[in-house]
């Protein structure tokens, strides 16, 4: 009864008790069992097991395992029966696989139990015995469609279990056993690769350096040796191998191994590309149809279907594991490792994307956009989330990981792939993610989209625009700027390939962003009394302060996005910096004209009569006292003289460098030695000079730090001289009819006039909002006192002026495009005979609309300019007025000038009486009035 209560089975060794009266008899029996004859007889029992039939040997092994288990559970464990289990396995090694599968069910489970023993000696003995037995079984080889090797390796996987709960010595023993198995038996392993890679996967999570080193070296051996010879045997287990590498990459304790694991994943991508055909299963090859009602006997299935199946197999078992596991690395690792993982992710796409089919691209972009889901779902952020909810999210994440491992160990390799999201531990963590990973991913996805635009644009451009819109609407300045910048890059790079639908989609996105990001609260916000001085609940005050901070951040980001959108429209239509160059040239030309017109005044001489020679430069020693207006004119003319190259004496001589000696390797590496006569290559070198000087190649060649610094200074001086020569040898661009000619990369010719007018309307709405805000001095003071842009009183001057100048440029170009738009309008009609008549009618209506818009905008701008005080606000507007007057003065033909300028004549004349008008505007105002008067005189 006591034995039953204690749970000890009757007849077991553990239940045996030593009675003092039977001590002598027991001693005698033990002596007899130790005799040689008894040992031989017992050995014959085990050696004779080969004569047992299939059922008998299974029962015998089961009983022996039970006895061995009882021996191992004794206070002083014995391994006699465990040794006999190994011996029986050796004796019966020749049995058929069906019998061995039944035998191994008991032996494998027993070795798993022994390997998990709390007695370290017993566990080590069990693992070593398992290794010996596994070697013997694998040496026999394996026939196709059999999976006994897989079960043979499973005890190693079960022994490790949760790697951090296993003793370090046992971890090391299992790792070394599996490593030896790989290196000695890799030619014989067939189905065992899957569980071998699972052992490596589990071991990759260890915190023991020896275990990581041994198992990771095994992974490198597989890539360098096994893949080169027997890759066709590893196709089914390839996804598990990639999982093992990603687990090494995600081990935070060993960053060097993480980086190396990512490198190995990239090598695996090359293997998939080179051996894509080997991923197809046998059942995907063309088969013969025998059904008489579908096709004649001997008809072969279409090769296109076989090719599709082959491609699908290459994706599911080759590319998909690589991309999903790199995505896992990006999610779970620290900044440096995930940055490297993200880089390799996009490098793989750029290198091998030409072979991808559309369905793959859709899944890849879905995976890429998942990177941004971390920031999209605010509930996953620690900001504003209670602690219990964060703990619940962590628990859910742990449950997902456990389910992931369970499915993986059960053999559901492909089903184990899934998208898991990063859980942020703090607002700083989320901000770092947006600043680094999201930013990096955004620019990279734009690069690959441009690279494979022809293949994916029709199906994925809309999805990309949705993602860019999300980035622009985030309360995160850097990400919002990146969103507009990437939109600009996409259109500039591929705008010439856009069809009408893509342009409409692009313009609609810009319109939506313009409308969504208008910071209307800037005009209506008032301070909350609960925050400013009025007593109240302390927690409530803190919440209101936090809400106000978030509101100010959102308003500030919206202001930034509005200006970035204006720049984006400008850069898309006219290419970057083109408008700024045009403004600089206009200012330079008007100052030159002002200097020539007022040269007698500056010289202190009377105004010359017509035909008299005009001195080329003002007299510097003039002692005439100028009026305040004349002094201001002198300052305006001389404050920004026409740029001229410095004299040769100012430029330091190019340093004499030993190009054939110690610098030859550097110049060859940088490309400078072979490209000194190629300006574009040299300019490319200059733009990347800092990267070249910081390269590990250069640092490794330097003899000392001091010498290296001196060499870098010499190279930098040489680059400066080359840049100087290239800058002043380039032909300067000039204004043609008051404007710069359109750049060859400008996309405005590809945009329909309806879309251009839509953009003009958006720009003018942004302009009017900025003008309304800048005019509301009281509201700006309220925001400033509340801490909005605390360094200076908030203003939207750049938004106000840049939006207006961009809209004017678009309208002036539209007013000059006559024949092209007549042709475009004629294409709207199918009947050729009526096309010419109606196209001219449509164009006249369109031209009338443009003229009315120009007149309204110009009149509104001049009236507002006259109301501005003489301060920085009015100076900021000078460029807009200069652009307007310059384009009006050069407007052609005269009929169009008359149509636009006549209604504006009175408004422009009002500028004459404006005090402190800049000399540049005065010169253009004079030119406008002269042309308008000459036109009036001609009409009379």
UniProtKB/TrEMBL annotation:
Residues of the Sec7/BIG1-like C-terminal domain: 746-929
A UniProt-annotated Pfam family: BIG2_C
Residue span(s) of domain Mon2/Sec7/BIG1-like HDS: 137-218
Domain of life: Eukaryota
Region: Disordered, residue numbers: 289-309
Bias-annotated ranges (Polar residues): 289-304
Protein name: DUF1981 domain-containing protein
């Amino acid at each position: 009864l006591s034995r039953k209560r204690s749970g000890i089975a009757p007849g077991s060794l553990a239940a045996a008790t030593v009675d003092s009266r039977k001590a002598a008899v027991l001693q005698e029996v033990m002596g007899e069992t130790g005799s040689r004859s008894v040992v031989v007889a017992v050995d014959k029992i085990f050696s004779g097991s080969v004569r047992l039939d299939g059922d008998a040997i299974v029962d015998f092994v089961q009983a022996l395992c039970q006895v061995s288990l009882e021996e191992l559970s004794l206070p002083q464990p014995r391994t006699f029966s465990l040794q006999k289990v190994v011996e029986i396995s050796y004796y019966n090694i020749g049995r058929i696989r069906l019998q061995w599968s039944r035998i191994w069910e008991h032996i494998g489970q027993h070795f798993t139990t022994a390997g998990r023993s709390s007695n370290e000696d017993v566990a080590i003995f069990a693992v070593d015995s398992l290794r010996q037995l596994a070697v013997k079984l694998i040496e026999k080889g394996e026939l196709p469609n059999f999976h006994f090797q897989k079960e043979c390796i499973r005890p190693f996987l079960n022994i490790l279990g949760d790697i951090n709960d296993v003793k370090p010595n046992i971890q090391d023993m299992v790792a070394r056993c599996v490593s030896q198995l790989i290196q000695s038996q890799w030619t014989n392993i067939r189905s065992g690769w899957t569980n071998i890679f699972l052992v490596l996967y589990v071991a990759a999570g260890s915190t023991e350096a020896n275990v990581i080193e041994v198992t990771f070296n095994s992974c490198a051996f597989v890539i360098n040796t096994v893949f080169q010879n027997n890759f066709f045997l590893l196709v089914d287990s390839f996804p598990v191998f990639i999982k093992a590498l990603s687990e090494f990459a995600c081990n935070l304790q060993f960053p060097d191994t993480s980086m190396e694991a990512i490198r190995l994943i990239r090598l695996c991508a090359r293997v998939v590309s080179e051996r894509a055909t080997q991923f197809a299963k046998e059942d995907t090859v063309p088969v013969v149809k025998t059904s008489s009602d579908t096709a004649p006997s001997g008809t072969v299935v279409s090769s296109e279907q076989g090719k599709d199946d082959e491609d699908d197999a290459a994706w599911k078992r080759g590319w998909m594991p690589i991309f999903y596991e790199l995505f896992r690395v990006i999610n779970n690792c620290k900044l440096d490792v995930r940055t490297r993982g993200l880089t390799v992710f996009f490098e793989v796409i750029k290198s091998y994307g030409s072979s991808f089919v559309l369905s793959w691209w859709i899944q890849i972009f879905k995976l890429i956009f998942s990177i941004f889901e971390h920031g999209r779902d605010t509930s996953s952020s620690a900001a504003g989330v209670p602690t219990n909810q964060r703990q619940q999210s962590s628990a859910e994440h742990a449950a997902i990981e456990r389910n992931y491992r369970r499915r993986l160990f059960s053999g559901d390799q492909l089903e184990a792939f899934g998208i898991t999201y990063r859980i942020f531990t703090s607002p700083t963590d989320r901000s770092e993610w947006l600043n680094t990973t999201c930013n990096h991913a955004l620019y990279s996805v734009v690069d690959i989209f441009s690279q494979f635009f022809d293949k994916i644009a029709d199906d994925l451009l809309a999805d990309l625009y949705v993602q860019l819109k999300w980035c622009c609407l985030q309360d995160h300045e850097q990400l919002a700027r990146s969103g507009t910048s990437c939109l600009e890059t996409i259109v500039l790079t591929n705008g010439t390939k856009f069809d009408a639908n893509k342009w409409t989609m692009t313009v609609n996105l810009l319109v939506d962003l313009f409308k969504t990001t208008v910071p209307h609260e800037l005009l209506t916000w008032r301070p909350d009394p609960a925050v400013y001085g009025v007593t109240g609940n302390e927690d409530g005050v803190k919440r209101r302060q936090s809400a106000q901070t978030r509101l100010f951040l959102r308003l500030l980001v919206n202001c930034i996005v509005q200006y970035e959108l204006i720049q984006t429209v400008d850069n898309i239509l006219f290419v970057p910096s083109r408008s700024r160059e045009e403004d600089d040239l206009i200012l330079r030309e008007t100052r030159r004209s002002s200097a020539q017109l007022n040269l007698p005044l500056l010289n202190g001489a009377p105004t010359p009569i017509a035909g008299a020679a005009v001195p080329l430069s003002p007299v510097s020693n003039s002692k005439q006292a100028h009026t305040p207006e004349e002094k201001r004119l002198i300052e305006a003319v001389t404050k920004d003289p026409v740029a001229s190259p410095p004299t040769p004496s100012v430029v330091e001589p190019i340093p004499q460098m030993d190009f054939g000696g110690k610098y030859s390797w550097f110049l060859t590496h940088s490309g400078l030695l072979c490209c000194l006569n190629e300006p574009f290559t040299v300019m490319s070198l200059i733009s990347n000079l800092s990267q070249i000087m910081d390269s590990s190649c250069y640092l490794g060649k330097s003899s000392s730090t001091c010498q290296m610094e001196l060499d870098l200074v010499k190279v930098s001086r040489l680059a400066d001289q080359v840049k100087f020569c290239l800058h002043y040898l380039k032909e300067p661009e000039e204004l043609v009819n008051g404007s710069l000619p359109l750049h060859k990369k400008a996309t405005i010719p590809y945009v329909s006039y309806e879309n251009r007018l839509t953009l003009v309307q958006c720009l003018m709405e942004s302009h009017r909002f900025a003008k309304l805000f800048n005019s509301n001095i009281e509201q700006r003071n309220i925001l400033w006192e509340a801490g909005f842009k605390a360094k200076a009183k908030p203003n939207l001057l750049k938004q106000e002026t840049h939006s207006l100048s961009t809209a004017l440029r678009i309208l002036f170009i539209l007013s000059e495009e006559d024949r092209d738009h007549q042709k475009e309008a004629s294409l709207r009609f199918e009947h050729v005979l009526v096309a010419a008549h109606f196209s001219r009618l449509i164009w006249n209506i369109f031209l009338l609309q443009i003229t009315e818009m120009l007149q309204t905008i110009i009149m509104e701008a001049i009236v507002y300019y006259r109301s501005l005080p003489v301060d920085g606000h009015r100076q900021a507007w000078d460029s807009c007025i200069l652009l307007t007057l310059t384009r009006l003065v050069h407007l052609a033909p005269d009929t169009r000038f008359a149509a636009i300028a006549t209604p504006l004549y009175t408004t422009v004349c009002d500028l004459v009486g404006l005090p402190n008008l800049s000399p540049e505007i005065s010169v253009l105002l004079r030119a406008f009035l002269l042309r308008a008067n000459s036109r009036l005189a001609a009409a009379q």
